[in-house]
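Now for one record.
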Amino acid sequence: MSAPGVQSFTQQGWDQVLTKVKRALVYLDASCAESLHWGCGSTRLLEAVGGPACHLREFEPEAVGGGAQQPKAVFVLSSLLKGRTVEILRNIICRSHFQYCVVVTAVNHAVHLTANHVSAAAAAELEGQQPVFEQLEEKLCEWMGNMNYTAEVLHIPLLLAPAAPHLALTPAFASLFPLLPQDVHLLNSARLDKRRLGSLGEVDASALPPELLLQIRCLVSGLSSLCEHLGVREECFAVGPFSRIIAADLANYAPAKNRRKTSAGRASVVFVDRTLDLAGAVGHHGDNLVEKIISVLPQLPGHNSDVMVNMVELTALQNEEENQSMVAPGCLAQSSDMAAKALWEALLNTKHKEAVMEVRRHLVEAASRENLPIKMSMGRVTPGQLMSYIQLFKNNLKALVNHCGLLQLGLATVQTLKHPQTAKWDNFLAFERLLLQSIGESAMSGVLHQLLPLIKPSSQRTSDDYSPEELLILLIYIYSVTGESTEDKALAATEEKVKRALAQVFCEESKLSPLLQKITVISDLEFLFCTNHHLAQNSIFGQERFFFLVKM
Protein backbone atom coordinates (compact mmCIF):
# COMPACT_ATOMS: atom_id res chain seq x y z
CA MET A 1 0.00 0.00 0.00
CA SER A 2 1.36 3.41 -0.95
CA ALA A 3 1.70 6.30 1.49
CA PRO A 4 -1.65 7.55 2.79
CA GLY A 5 -3.28 9.93 0.34
CA VAL A 6 -6.40 10.44 -1.73
CA GLN A 7 -5.41 7.74 -4.23
CA SER A 8 -4.58 5.11 -1.61
CA PHE A 9 -7.81 6.00 0.23
CA THR A 10 -9.87 5.29 -2.88
CA GLN A 11 -7.88 2.19 -3.85
CA GLN A 12 -8.24 0.77 -0.36
CA GLY A 13 -12.01 1.18 -0.60
CA TRP A 14 -12.20 -0.51 -3.99
CA ASP A 15 -9.91 -3.31 -2.82
CA GLN A 16 -12.53 -4.12 -0.19
CA VAL A 17 -15.26 -4.10 -2.86
CA LEU A 18 -13.24 -6.39 -5.14
CA THR A 19 -13.07 -9.09 -2.45
CA LYS A 20 -16.88 -9.35 -2.64
CA VAL A 21 -17.55 -9.42 -6.38
CA LYS A 22 -16.29 -12.80 -7.59
CA ARG A 23 -18.78 -14.26 -10.13
CA ALA A 24 -21.40 -11.66 -9.22
CA LEU A 25 -23.63 -9.26 -11.05
CA VAL A 26 -22.32 -5.84 -10.00
CA TYR A 27 -24.66 -2.86 -9.94
CA LEU A 28 -23.08 0.59 -9.56
CA ASP A 29 -24.70 3.99 -9.32
CA ALA A 30 -23.23 6.85 -11.36
CA SER A 31 -21.14 8.37 -8.57
CA CYS A 32 -19.51 5.08 -7.58
CA ALA A 33 -18.90 4.29 -11.24
CA GLU A 34 -17.06 7.62 -11.51
CA SER A 35 -14.98 6.83 -8.43
CA LEU A 36 -14.10 3.46 -9.97
CA HIS A 37 -13.33 5.14 -13.30
CA TRP A 38 -10.70 7.45 -11.80
CA GLY A 39 -9.63 5.24 -8.90
CA CYS A 40 -8.69 1.88 -10.38
CA GLY A 41 -10.60 1.43 -13.65
CA SER A 42 -13.33 -1.01 -14.65
CA THR A 43 -10.76 -3.54 -15.89
CA ARG A 44 -9.75 -4.43 -12.33
CA LEU A 45 -13.38 -4.87 -11.36
CA LEU A 46 -14.08 -7.10 -14.37
CA GLU A 47 -11.00 -9.19 -13.58
CA ALA A 48 -12.16 -9.60 -9.99
CA VAL A 49 -15.67 -10.58 -11.14
CA GLY A 50 -14.48 -13.20 -13.65
CA GLY A 51 -16.76 -15.66 -15.42
CA PRO A 52 -18.37 -15.20 -18.83
CA ALA A 53 -21.92 -14.89 -17.46
CA CYS A 54 -21.22 -11.94 -15.15
CA HIS A 55 -21.73 -8.30 -16.03
CA LEU A 56 -21.56 -4.76 -14.72
CA ARG A 57 -24.90 -2.95 -14.66
CA GLU A 58 -26.14 0.51 -13.88
CA PHE A 59 -28.12 0.84 -10.68
CA GLU A 60 -31.36 2.34 -11.95
CA PRO A 61 -35.08 1.48 -11.87
CA GLU A 62 -35.07 -0.35 -15.22
CA ALA A 63 -31.89 -2.34 -14.53
CA VAL A 64 -32.02 -5.94 -15.74
CA GLY A 65 -32.24 -8.47 -12.94
CA GLY A 66 -30.28 -11.68 -12.50
CA GLY A 67 -31.29 -14.93 -14.14
CA ALA A 68 -31.22 -18.45 -12.77
CA GLN A 69 -27.52 -18.75 -13.62
CA GLN A 70 -26.65 -15.56 -11.72
CA PRO A 71 -27.26 -16.23 -8.02
CA LYS A 72 -25.02 -13.47 -6.62
CA ALA A 73 -25.30 -9.69 -6.78
CA VAL A 74 -23.22 -6.83 -5.39
CA PHE A 75 -24.71 -3.32 -5.23
CA VAL A 76 -22.19 -0.46 -4.86
CA LEU A 77 -24.01 2.73 -3.93
CA SER A 78 -22.99 6.26 -2.99
CA SER A 79 -26.23 7.20 -1.26
CA LEU A 80 -28.12 6.53 1.93
CA LEU A 81 -29.95 3.21 2.01
CA LYS A 82 -33.30 4.87 2.31
CA GLY A 83 -36.31 5.92 0.25
CA ARG A 84 -35.98 5.63 -3.52
CA THR A 85 -32.67 3.75 -3.29
CA VAL A 86 -34.26 0.97 -1.24
CA GLU A 87 -37.23 0.83 -3.63
CA ILE A 88 -34.92 0.26 -6.59
CA LEU A 89 -33.00 -2.37 -4.62
CA ARG A 90 -36.21 -4.23 -3.82
CA ASN A 91 -37.48 -4.11 -7.39
CA ILE A 92 -34.23 -5.46 -8.87
CA ILE A 93 -33.96 -8.25 -6.32
CA CYS A 94 -37.61 -9.27 -6.57
CA ARG A 95 -37.36 -9.82 -10.33
CA SER A 96 -34.10 -11.78 -10.01
CA HIS A 97 -33.00 -15.20 -8.79
CA PHE A 98 -30.38 -14.05 -6.30
CA GLN A 99 -29.36 -16.19 -3.36
CA TYR A 100 -26.53 -13.97 -2.14
CA CYS A 101 -26.71 -10.17 -2.03
CA VAL A 102 -24.06 -7.71 -0.89
CA VAL A 103 -24.95 -4.02 -0.56
CA VAL A 104 -22.08 -1.55 -0.19
CA THR A 105 -22.90 2.02 0.83
CA ALA A 106 -20.47 4.94 0.89
CA VAL A 107 -22.40 6.44 3.81
CA ASN A 108 -21.48 5.65 7.42
CA HIS A 109 -24.00 3.83 9.62
CA ALA A 110 -24.02 6.83 11.97
CA VAL A 111 -25.57 8.93 9.19
CA HIS A 112 -28.19 6.24 8.62
CA LEU A 113 -29.15 6.58 12.28
CA THR A 114 -29.56 10.33 11.78
CA ALA A 115 -31.66 9.70 8.67
CA ASN A 116 -33.88 7.43 10.73
CA HIS A 117 -34.36 10.13 13.38
CA VAL A 118 -32.32 8.38 16.09
CA SER A 119 -31.21 10.95 18.68
CA ALA A 120 -27.53 11.58 19.40
CA ALA A 121 -27.90 10.09 22.87
CA ALA A 122 -29.54 6.91 21.55
CA ALA A 123 -26.92 6.65 18.79
CA ALA A 124 -24.15 6.83 21.38
CA GLU A 125 -25.66 3.85 23.17
CA LEU A 126 -25.61 1.88 19.89
CA GLU A 127 -21.85 2.30 19.40
CA GLY A 128 -20.44 -0.81 17.76
CA GLN A 129 -23.89 -1.94 16.60
CA GLN A 130 -25.46 -1.48 13.16
CA PRO A 131 -29.21 -2.04 13.53
CA VAL A 132 -30.12 -0.18 10.28
CA PHE A 133 -27.82 -2.41 8.24
CA GLU A 134 -29.03 -5.54 10.07
CA GLN A 135 -32.67 -4.70 9.36
CA LEU A 136 -31.88 -4.21 5.68
CA GLU A 137 -30.08 -7.56 5.58
CA GLU A 138 -33.30 -9.21 6.78
CA LYS A 139 -35.24 -7.35 4.09
CA LEU A 140 -32.80 -8.51 1.42
CA CYS A 141 -33.39 -12.15 2.39
CA GLU A 142 -37.12 -11.54 2.37
CA TRP A 143 -36.96 -10.05 -1.14
CA MET A 144 -34.79 -12.95 -2.34
CA GLY A 145 -37.57 -15.25 -1.13
CA ASN A 146 -35.71 -17.30 1.47
CA MET A 147 -34.57 -16.16 4.92
CA ASN A 148 -31.73 -18.71 4.77
CA TYR A 149 -30.10 -16.97 1.82
CA THR A 150 -27.08 -14.75 2.49
CA ALA A 151 -27.20 -10.96 2.71
CA GLU A 152 -24.53 -8.45 3.71
CA VAL A 153 -24.74 -4.69 4.13
CA LEU A 154 -21.51 -2.81 4.76
CA HIS A 155 -20.04 0.67 4.66
CA ILE A 156 -17.02 1.42 2.46
CA PRO A 157 -16.20 5.14 2.07
CA LEU A 158 -16.11 5.47 -1.73
CA LEU A 159 -16.19 9.25 -1.54
CA LEU A 160 -13.50 10.35 -3.98
CA ALA A 161 -12.70 10.16 -7.66
CA PRO A 162 -8.93 10.86 -7.61
CA ALA A 163 -8.11 12.70 -10.85
CA ALA A 164 -4.46 13.10 -9.77
CA PRO A 165 -2.32 12.41 -6.67
CA HIS A 166 -3.22 15.81 -5.21
CA LEU A 167 -6.60 16.40 -6.86
CA ALA A 168 -9.73 14.47 -5.96
CA LEU A 169 -13.35 15.05 -6.92
CA THR A 170 -16.55 14.16 -5.06
CA PRO A 171 -19.01 13.11 -7.81
CA ALA A 172 -21.81 12.28 -5.37
CA PHE A 173 -21.87 15.94 -4.31
CA ALA A 174 -21.50 17.63 -7.69
CA SER A 175 -24.93 19.24 -7.28
CA LEU A 176 -24.37 20.43 -3.69
CA PHE A 177 -24.45 24.20 -4.09
CA PRO A 178 -24.16 26.96 -1.47
CA LEU A 179 -27.19 28.90 -0.33
CA LEU A 180 -27.87 32.26 -1.97
CA PRO A 181 -29.33 35.40 -0.35
CA GLN A 182 -32.77 34.78 -1.82
CA ASP A 183 -32.81 31.35 -0.15
CA VAL A 184 -33.22 33.10 3.19
CA HIS A 185 -36.83 33.88 2.21
CA LEU A 186 -37.48 30.17 1.52
CA LEU A 187 -35.92 29.18 4.85
CA ASN A 188 -38.05 31.76 6.68
CA SER A 189 -41.22 30.41 5.04
CA ALA A 190 -40.58 27.13 6.87
CA ARG A 191 -39.92 28.88 10.23
CA LEU A 192 -43.31 30.42 10.88
CA ASP A 193 -43.07 29.90 14.64
CA LYS A 194 -39.37 30.75 14.95
CA ARG A 195 -37.21 33.86 14.79
CA ARG A 196 -36.89 35.23 11.27
CA LEU A 197 -33.46 35.02 9.64
CA GLY A 198 -32.10 38.34 8.45
CA SER A 199 -29.25 37.13 6.24
CA LEU A 200 -27.20 34.10 5.23
CA GLY A 201 -24.81 34.85 8.06
CA GLU A 202 -27.54 33.91 10.55
CA VAL A 203 -28.27 30.51 8.94
CA ASP A 204 -27.13 27.47 10.89
CA ALA A 205 -27.73 23.73 10.56
CA SER A 206 -31.01 23.89 12.49
CA ALA A 207 -32.48 26.19 9.83
CA LEU A 208 -31.74 23.86 6.89
CA PRO A 209 -34.27 21.50 5.29
CA PRO A 210 -33.76 17.89 6.48
CA GLU A 211 -32.80 16.68 2.97
CA LEU A 212 -30.02 19.26 2.65
CA LEU A 213 -28.79 18.58 6.15
CA LEU A 214 -28.57 14.86 5.37
CA GLN A 215 -26.62 15.58 2.20
CA ILE A 216 -24.14 17.64 4.22
CA ARG A 217 -23.87 14.86 6.79
CA CYS A 218 -23.12 12.32 4.03
CA LEU A 219 -20.28 14.54 2.82
CA VAL A 220 -19.00 14.96 6.36
CA SER A 221 -19.10 11.18 6.83
CA GLY A 222 -16.83 10.69 3.83
CA LEU A 223 -14.43 13.47 4.83
CA SER A 224 -14.13 12.00 8.32
CA SER A 225 -13.27 8.60 6.81
CA LEU A 226 -10.58 10.27 4.67
CA CYS A 227 -9.08 11.94 7.76
CA GLU A 228 -9.10 8.57 9.51
CA HIS A 229 -7.22 7.01 6.58
CA LEU A 230 -4.68 9.85 6.67
CA GLY A 231 -4.34 9.49 10.44
CA VAL A 232 -4.97 13.17 11.15
CA ARG A 233 -7.06 15.27 13.47
CA GLU A 234 -8.38 18.13 11.41
CA GLU A 235 -8.77 21.79 12.20
CA CYS A 236 -11.58 23.26 10.11
CA PHE A 237 -11.74 26.71 8.54
CA ALA A 238 -14.56 28.14 6.45
CA VAL A 239 -14.93 30.94 3.91
CA GLY A 240 -18.59 31.65 3.27
CA PRO A 241 -21.80 30.96 5.24
CA PHE A 242 -22.54 27.55 3.69
CA SER A 243 -18.99 26.33 4.22
CA ARG A 244 -19.26 27.42 7.85
CA ILE A 245 -22.20 25.06 8.32
CA ILE A 246 -20.30 22.13 6.77
CA ALA A 247 -17.17 22.84 8.82
CA ALA A 248 -19.22 23.02 12.01
CA ASP A 249 -20.94 19.74 11.20
CA LEU A 250 -17.60 18.00 10.67
CA ALA A 251 -16.31 19.43 13.95
CA ASN A 252 -19.37 18.15 15.83
CA TYR A 253 -19.74 14.80 14.00
CA ALA A 254 -19.63 12.12 16.73
CA PRO A 255 -17.38 9.57 14.92
CA ALA A 256 -15.00 12.42 14.07
CA LYS A 257 -14.80 13.47 17.72
CA ASN A 258 -13.81 9.95 18.73
CA ARG A 259 -11.26 9.70 15.91
CA ARG A 260 -9.58 12.99 16.81
CA LYS A 261 -8.80 11.68 20.28
CA THR A 262 -6.37 9.10 18.91
CA SER A 263 -5.10 10.64 15.66
CA ALA A 264 -1.38 11.42 15.70
CA GLY A 265 -1.15 13.80 12.73
CA ARG A 266 -2.67 17.19 12.15
CA ALA A 267 -4.33 18.73 9.10
CA SER A 268 -6.05 21.97 8.18
CA VAL A 269 -9.26 21.68 6.16
CA VAL A 270 -10.48 24.81 4.40
CA PHE A 271 -14.04 24.92 3.05
CA VAL A 272 -14.83 27.63 0.48
CA ASP A 273 -18.26 28.49 -0.93
CA ARG A 274 -18.35 27.96 -4.70
CA THR A 275 -20.36 31.17 -5.11
CA LEU A 276 -17.38 33.26 -3.97
CA ASP A 277 -15.61 32.75 -7.30
CA LEU A 278 -18.27 32.62 -9.97
CA ALA A 279 -16.13 34.91 -12.11
CA GLY A 280 -13.36 32.32 -12.04
CA ALA A 281 -15.78 29.53 -12.90
CA VAL A 282 -17.19 31.24 -16.00
CA GLY A 283 -14.11 33.25 -17.05
CA HIS A 284 -11.69 32.29 -19.83
CA HIS A 285 -8.53 33.52 -18.18
CA GLY A 286 -7.02 30.09 -17.64
CA ASP A 287 -4.00 29.15 -19.75
CA ASN A 288 -4.45 25.43 -19.14
CA LEU A 289 -5.01 22.77 -21.80
CA VAL A 290 -7.08 20.51 -19.53
CA GLU A 291 -9.51 23.35 -18.83
CA LYS A 292 -10.06 23.76 -22.57
CA ILE A 293 -10.38 20.00 -23.18
CA ILE A 294 -13.10 19.69 -20.54
CA SER A 295 -14.86 22.80 -21.85
CA VAL A 296 -15.10 21.84 -25.53
CA LEU A 297 -15.29 18.03 -25.75
CA PRO A 298 -18.64 16.31 -25.06
CA GLN A 299 -19.18 14.99 -21.56
CA LEU A 300 -18.75 11.28 -20.96
CA PRO A 301 -22.30 9.96 -20.25
CA GLY A 302 -23.00 9.56 -16.56
CA HIS A 303 -19.85 11.45 -15.53
CA ASN A 304 -19.32 14.91 -14.11
CA SER A 305 -15.57 15.17 -14.73
CA ASP A 306 -14.55 13.30 -17.88
CA VAL A 307 -15.11 13.72 -21.60
CA MET A 308 -15.55 11.59 -24.71
CA VAL A 309 -12.58 11.37 -27.05
CA ASN A 310 -13.41 10.29 -30.60
CA MET A 311 -11.19 7.28 -31.37
CA VAL A 312 -12.42 6.70 -34.94
CA GLU A 313 -9.16 8.04 -36.44
CA LEU A 314 -7.30 4.99 -35.13
CA THR A 315 -9.55 2.38 -36.70
CA ALA A 316 -9.41 0.73 -40.10
CA LEU A 317 -13.17 0.77 -40.74
CA GLN A 318 -14.15 2.75 -43.82
CA ASN A 319 -17.85 3.38 -43.11
CA GLU A 320 -17.89 6.44 -40.86
CA GLU A 321 -21.41 5.91 -39.52
CA GLU A 322 -20.67 2.28 -38.74
CA ASN A 323 -17.37 3.29 -37.23
CA GLN A 324 -18.93 5.89 -34.94
CA SER A 325 -21.43 3.38 -33.58
CA MET A 326 -18.91 0.58 -33.07
CA VAL A 327 -15.92 2.40 -31.54
CA ALA A 328 -16.22 3.23 -27.86
CA PRO A 329 -15.10 6.76 -26.94
CA GLY A 330 -11.80 7.38 -25.22
CA CYS A 331 -11.49 9.44 -22.04
CA LEU A 332 -9.01 11.34 -19.85
CA ALA A 333 -8.78 8.88 -16.95
CA GLN A 334 -5.98 6.36 -17.48
CA SER A 335 -5.72 4.54 -14.16
CA SER A 336 -3.48 1.67 -15.31
CA ASP A 337 -1.27 3.34 -17.97
CA MET A 338 1.72 4.85 -16.16
CA ALA A 339 3.00 6.86 -19.15
CA ALA A 340 -0.47 8.31 -19.74
CA LYS A 341 -0.81 9.14 -16.03
CA ALA A 342 2.50 11.00 -16.16
CA LEU A 343 1.34 12.98 -19.21
CA TRP A 344 -2.05 13.69 -17.59
CA GLU A 345 -0.37 15.13 -14.49
CA ALA A 346 1.86 17.24 -16.71
CA LEU A 347 -1.18 18.59 -18.56
CA LEU A 348 -2.81 19.53 -15.26
CA ASN A 349 0.23 21.37 -13.95
CA THR A 350 1.63 23.22 -16.98
CA LYS A 351 0.52 26.08 -19.19
CA HIS A 352 -1.11 25.48 -22.56
CA LYS A 353 2.01 25.84 -24.72
CA GLU A 354 4.17 23.59 -22.52
CA ALA A 355 1.35 21.03 -22.27
CA VAL A 356 1.04 20.70 -26.05
CA MET A 357 4.82 20.23 -26.29
CA GLU A 358 4.59 17.51 -23.63
CA VAL A 359 1.99 15.69 -25.71
CA ARG A 360 4.31 15.82 -28.71
CA ARG A 361 7.28 14.57 -26.66
CA HIS A 362 5.34 11.61 -25.26
CA LEU A 363 4.01 10.65 -28.69
CA VAL A 364 7.49 10.83 -30.24
CA GLU A 365 8.99 8.70 -27.46
CA ALA A 366 6.17 6.12 -27.73
CA ALA A 367 6.56 5.90 -31.52
CA SER A 368 10.33 5.49 -31.15
CA ARG A 369 9.90 2.64 -28.66
CA GLU A 370 7.64 0.89 -31.17
CA ASN A 371 10.13 1.50 -34.01
CA LEU A 372 7.52 3.41 -36.00
CA PRO A 373 8.74 5.54 -38.93
CA ILE A 374 8.46 8.91 -37.25
CA LYS A 375 9.56 12.11 -38.99
CA MET A 376 10.79 14.68 -36.52
CA SER A 377 9.87 18.33 -36.93
CA MET A 378 10.75 21.26 -34.73
CA GLY A 379 9.09 24.57 -34.08
CA ARG A 380 5.47 25.26 -33.16
CA VAL A 381 3.34 22.23 -32.42
CA THR A 382 0.27 22.02 -34.65
CA PRO A 383 -2.79 19.72 -34.51
CA GLY A 384 -1.77 18.28 -37.88
CA GLN A 385 1.69 17.42 -36.59
CA LEU A 386 0.30 15.66 -33.53
CA MET A 387 -2.21 13.81 -35.71
CA SER A 388 0.55 12.58 -38.01
CA TYR A 389 2.31 11.03 -35.01
CA ILE A 390 -0.92 9.44 -33.76
CA GLN A 391 -1.71 8.00 -37.19
CA LEU A 392 1.55 6.00 -37.04
CA PHE A 393 -0.11 3.72 -34.48
CA LYS A 394 -3.09 2.98 -36.74
CA ASN A 395 -3.45 -0.67 -37.81
CA ASN A 396 -0.66 -1.67 -35.39
CA LEU A 397 -2.58 -3.59 -32.74
CA LYS A 398 0.41 -4.20 -30.47
CA ALA A 399 1.41 -0.53 -30.48
CA LEU A 400 -2.21 0.56 -29.96
CA VAL A 401 -2.59 -1.68 -26.91
CA ASN A 402 0.75 -0.61 -25.45
CA HIS A 403 0.00 3.11 -25.73
CA CYS A 404 -3.80 3.29 -25.72
CA GLY A 405 -3.96 5.71 -22.78
CA LEU A 406 -1.39 8.05 -24.29
CA LEU A 407 -3.19 8.03 -27.65
CA GLN A 408 -6.48 8.97 -25.97
CA LEU A 409 -4.85 12.04 -24.40
CA GLY A 410 -3.17 12.85 -27.70
CA LEU A 411 -6.46 12.69 -29.60
CA ALA A 412 -8.17 14.76 -26.89
CA THR A 413 -5.52 17.42 -27.43
CA VAL A 414 -5.88 17.37 -31.23
CA GLN A 415 -9.67 17.48 -31.13
CA THR A 416 -9.58 20.38 -28.68
CA LEU A 417 -7.07 22.40 -30.69
CA LYS A 418 -9.17 21.91 -33.86
CA HIS A 419 -12.52 22.58 -32.16
CA PRO A 420 -14.32 25.81 -33.19
CA GLN A 421 -15.00 26.58 -29.54
CA THR A 422 -11.27 26.78 -28.85
CA ALA A 423 -10.93 29.67 -31.30
CA LYS A 424 -13.84 31.33 -29.54
CA TRP A 425 -11.99 31.00 -26.23
CA ASP A 426 -9.63 33.81 -27.22
CA ASN A 427 -12.59 35.98 -28.23
CA PHE A 428 -14.12 35.44 -24.79
CA LEU A 429 -10.84 36.33 -23.11
CA ALA A 430 -10.46 39.53 -25.14
CA PHE A 431 -14.03 40.64 -24.42
CA GLU A 432 -13.69 39.86 -20.70
CA ARG A 433 -10.55 42.01 -20.55
CA LEU A 434 -12.42 44.81 -22.31
CA LEU A 435 -15.27 44.49 -19.81
CA LEU A 436 -12.85 44.62 -16.87
CA GLN A 437 -11.37 47.81 -18.26
CA SER A 438 -14.82 49.30 -18.78
CA ILE A 439 -15.95 48.33 -15.28
CA GLY A 440 -13.04 50.27 -13.87
CA GLU A 441 -13.71 53.35 -15.99
CA SER A 442 -17.49 53.62 -16.38
CA ALA A 443 -20.78 52.90 -14.66
CA MET A 444 -22.47 49.51 -14.80
CA SER A 445 -25.02 50.76 -17.32
CA GLY A 446 -22.17 51.59 -19.72
CA VAL A 447 -20.76 48.08 -19.38
CA LEU A 448 -24.13 46.52 -20.22
CA HIS A 449 -24.46 48.83 -23.23
CA GLN A 450 -21.33 47.18 -24.64
CA LEU A 451 -23.03 43.82 -24.34
CA LEU A 452 -26.28 44.81 -26.06
CA PRO A 453 -25.00 44.68 -29.69
CA LEU A 454 -23.77 41.13 -29.07
CA ILE A 455 -27.26 39.83 -28.21
CA LYS A 456 -28.51 38.56 -31.57
CA PRO A 457 -31.40 36.21 -32.43
CA SER A 458 -30.60 32.97 -34.24
CA SER A 459 -31.57 34.42 -37.64
CA GLN A 460 -28.81 37.05 -37.34
CA ARG A 461 -26.10 35.02 -35.61
CA THR A 462 -23.01 33.61 -37.27
CA SER A 463 -20.66 30.99 -35.88
CA ASP A 464 -18.52 33.80 -34.44
CA ASP A 465 -21.40 35.34 -32.47
CA TYR A 466 -22.32 34.42 -28.90
CA SER A 467 -25.03 31.83 -28.28
CA PRO A 468 -27.69 32.40 -25.58
CA GLU A 469 -25.74 30.22 -23.14
CA GLU A 470 -22.56 32.17 -23.79
CA LEU A 471 -24.38 35.47 -23.26
CA LEU A 472 -25.54 34.24 -19.87
CA ILE A 473 -21.94 33.30 -19.04
CA LEU A 474 -20.85 36.84 -19.86
CA LEU A 475 -23.63 38.28 -17.70
CA ILE A 476 -22.62 36.08 -14.78
CA TYR A 477 -19.03 37.21 -15.28
CA ILE A 478 -20.00 40.90 -15.36
CA TYR A 479 -22.14 40.81 -12.22
CA SER A 480 -19.68 38.57 -10.36
CA VAL A 481 -16.73 40.93 -10.83
CA THR A 482 -18.75 44.09 -10.13
CA GLY A 483 -20.61 42.83 -7.06
CA GLU A 484 -23.56 44.78 -5.74
CA SER A 485 -24.33 47.89 -7.79
CA THR A 486 -26.03 51.08 -6.63
CA GLU A 487 -29.48 51.21 -8.16
CA ASP A 488 -30.09 54.14 -10.50
CA LYS A 489 -32.44 54.94 -13.36
CA ALA A 490 -29.79 54.52 -16.06
CA LEU A 491 -28.86 51.05 -14.81
CA ALA A 492 -32.50 49.98 -14.47
CA ALA A 493 -33.24 51.16 -18.01
CA THR A 494 -30.23 49.34 -19.47
CA GLU A 495 -31.04 46.15 -17.58
CA GLU A 496 -34.55 46.34 -19.00
CA LYS A 497 -33.12 46.57 -22.53
CA VAL A 498 -30.90 43.56 -21.89
CA LYS A 499 -33.85 41.61 -20.53
CA ARG A 500 -35.95 42.39 -23.60
CA ALA A 501 -33.13 41.52 -25.97
CA LEU A 502 -32.51 38.19 -24.23
CA ALA A 503 -36.24 37.43 -24.16
CA GLN A 504 -36.39 37.98 -27.91
CA VAL A 505 -33.37 35.71 -28.45
CA PHE A 506 -34.89 32.97 -26.32
CA CYS A 507 -38.26 33.22 -28.06
CA GLU A 508 -36.73 33.00 -31.53
CA GLU A 509 -34.67 29.91 -30.76
CA SER A 510 -36.03 26.96 -32.76
CA LYS A 511 -35.29 24.68 -29.81
CA LEU A 512 -34.12 25.56 -26.34
CA SER A 513 -31.05 23.70 -25.13
CA PRO A 514 -31.45 21.57 -21.97
CA LEU A 515 -29.50 24.21 -20.02
CA LEU A 516 -31.77 27.04 -21.12
CA GLN A 517 -34.87 24.96 -20.35
CA LYS A 518 -33.53 24.35 -16.85
CA ILE A 519 -32.68 28.00 -16.29
CA THR A 520 -35.90 29.45 -17.67
CA VAL A 521 -38.15 26.65 -16.38
CA ILE A 522 -40.10 26.98 -19.63
CA SER A 523 -40.71 24.10 -22.02
CA ASP A 524 -40.47 24.26 -25.80
CA LEU A 525 -44.27 24.07 -25.99
CA GLU A 526 -44.63 27.14 -23.80
CA PHE A 527 -42.20 29.03 -26.01
CA LEU A 528 -44.28 28.09 -29.04
CA PHE A 529 -47.11 30.20 -27.66
CA CYS A 530 -44.85 32.96 -26.29
CA THR A 531 -45.28 35.34 -29.25
CA ASN A 532 -45.64 38.32 -26.93
CA HIS A 533 -42.08 39.25 -25.95
CA HIS A 534 -43.22 41.15 -22.86
CA LEU A 535 -45.05 38.02 -21.69
CA ALA A 536 -41.99 35.93 -22.46
CA GLN A 537 -39.76 38.33 -20.56
CA ASN A 538 -41.93 38.09 -17.46
CA SER A 539 -42.08 34.31 -17.79
CA ILE A 540 -38.30 34.00 -18.05
CA PHE A 541 -37.09 36.62 -15.62
CA GLY A 542 -39.99 37.07 -13.24
CA GLN A 543 -39.50 39.88 -10.72
CA GLU A 544 -35.87 39.00 -9.92
CA ARG A 545 -32.87 40.69 -11.49
CA PHE A 546 -31.84 38.43 -14.35
CA PHE A 547 -28.27 37.87 -13.22
CA PHE A 548 -29.60 35.68 -10.42
CA LEU A 549 -30.34 33.09 -13.11
CA VAL A 550 -27.09 31.49 -12.01
CA LYS A 551 -28.93 30.10 -9.03
CA MET A 552 -30.75 27.61 -11.24
User: Anything to note?
Assistant: The first strand starts at residue 25 and ends at 28. Residues 441-551 form one domain. Confidence is low (pLDDT under 50) at residues 523-552.
